[in-house]
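User: Can you write out an input/output pair for a complex, sequences first and structure second?

Assistant: Here is one pair. Inputs:
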Amino acid sequence: MTDTLTPAVSHDAHGHDEHHGPSGIIKWLTTTDHKIIGLSYTVTAVMMFVIGGLFAEIIRFQLASPNGNLVSLAQYNELFTMHGSVMIYLFVGPFAFGALANIIVPIQIGAPDMAFPRLNALSYWLYLGGCITMLSGFFTAGGAANFGWVGYAPLSNSLNAPGAGADLWIGGLLLTGFSAIFTGVNLCATVFYLRAPGMTMFRMPIFTWNLLVTAILILLAFPVLTAGLIMLYADRHFGTHIFTNGGGGVPVLWQHIFWFWGHPEVYILALPFFGMVTDIIATFSKKPVFGYKGMIFATLSIAALSLGVWAHHMFTTGVVLLPFFSIMSLLIAVPTGIKMFNWIGTMWRGQVWFSASMLMAMGFLFTFLIGGLTGIYLASPPLDFMTHDTYFVVAHFHSVVMALVFGAMSGLYFWAPKITGYLLNERIGKAQFWFLFIGTQVFTFPLYLLGLYGMPRRMALYPLDPQWQHLNEISTFGAVLIGISTVLFVVNIGVSWKKYPAGDNPWDGHTLEWFTTSPPPHHNFYRLPKIRSERPTWDYNHPEHVALAHGKHEEAAK
Amino acid sequence: MNRLPGFGASPGVTTSSRSVYHLWQGFSVGAVIVGALVIALMLWSFAFHRRKGDAIPAQTQYHLPLEIIYTVIPILIVIGLFAATLVVENREVANPKTDVNIDVNAFQWGWEFLYPGHNAVVFGQTTQTPVMVMPSNENVHIQLTATDVIHGFYVHDFNFSRYALPGVYNDFTFRAVKNGTFFGQCTQLCGMYHSLMYFRVKVVSPAAYQAWLNSFNNAKAAKAAQAAMSALNQQLSTDVATKPAYGG
């Protein structure tokens, strides 16, 4: 088992300078290397997380008292609009399928780069352009977009949102949307055409599988959003009446188009992190992914169902068929539950090692459990009528999205060696985990109660009610703890800068990225092991410990 | 069901708000049981399967019977939740015939309550907090629309909200079982003064409701009601109002 495939290019030939090319800023501007593009994505997306987080802190401080006067009514509308937009459009998605996917997916399948390296570079520059375009709304006379991250018509038409900020929001979203579509094309082509010899579809790591499914969802959903945005722009500037009532248009049509993108989008955001923690939990439990094939079928059925649930965001419009969208939404709980039990099954009777990365993955599991269970309520139309547009919904999707933040942090601590060659400081990482974990729960639990007590979302001011105020104060305290955890992360990058050399395989990893060097060479591999399962690196290092079904170990021992 | 805790929700004051509350309790019992089971399994593996050395554990990857169990049981739970949902939902969205009708019009930033066939008109912007008067123990049919952007008609004690959509008439029916004044608010972002778009619902006895309606029986109120009605109709006719496709 120790022999490897003959390397295409020998190590010695590559030993000196493997890649002659520009350095410094010219290298960054002209690169088509997926690892450098992925790093640019990572840095940009984390900056967006910090900016969106600052907006969140301002919102929470405004709400710490009923008559908060930190910001005006108009500024408040801009802030929560841009908080949601930055976090969803510019942080979570691009971080998931632009940053870590870009760096890790080609390496996990033994490929030298993405299938279309120049298209990949274009994706990044479109994304960066989109970030700058959307945020530049704050520097216009009318301020940034102020109609919520969902941009419901007719509030987003030229009458109600006349400023340039709204156009910059549409433009920024179009640019990031195209960036996502190109990344989707690239990921599909890479996974279908660039897998190493022996890497069959059912030997791909779960992370790569989930990114493939994500890429397919991107290709199905994002063009719809792009079309909708062009229609919205035409309504604003070219005198069409697609979403305006007066000329025979239908405002609710925008909601259909938006959520036909928006619900698959939830899984476009979540699936990459599901895949990430799956691989991380398996590695830190020293066990194979429990129910590997079940996991893949669960991902595929989540993706299929997610295309038929969009109107559960529209139950209270009174113009959608309630039972259909209700049962489709409820059914998503089944494959999601399978994943949850598979994660626990992976840890079961393992050797669970609580590194900072694994702790973050556990934070994901717990927070996602809360977000998932409260999502089941919202799939039931009567319960949605009861809680729609209250803080209960806000709390639900913040539990879900904060779970993805845990996933992002887990991935960064796990894969830092493959990005930089160095590990992050574990002690600071664990402190960051506890601030983030306690902060997230202290932040969301009061919001669930506020929603049930009747507080609507998107309100700069609220009635003088001591109970509401106390709950808001507690939630703001939680938001401060989350802020501290983010500061600790930035501190950790500074403290760990080129300090803890990682070696090729610090965690005894399973998949191909742990077979190559840290960081990997220009085209990722000097040599590849034989690929005979979804854990080629593990098989190479532990040839006697192959994965088996329950009860088969005794037979194997005989 | 009355012995169960409310899990943060409250029963409210209408017949459907109470069945929604019971549905909420049912969902919560399920969520607590499933959540507790999952957390217990997680904590168990944290406590007892924590790393103790460098030994490599058994590399178990599949356990088909177990995987089938945790696929089939959630499907059964989902079917149960869906059945309960359908029962409550069908009751809640039914519109039985009634003589009490209120037309509600939401606008930036206030509410207008018209009583077809009567002179009563209630109109108020933001902090003026208009009051919708309705009788208890009678079915009250509401026809909801908006004249500019989308608003949300939400009464916490009714456990109910519905969008006020420009160009669409949304119909629903309440039957309040308790007199009192209840807080209502716009829940769908509608612009600058969204957070001040309040209203109240005042539920009174049928006799008091009739007396309140009769107080508008004078020439001045009749003229005002006519003006309000024709102004609203003119606004809506330019909006090409339609009935919803699904009668919610």
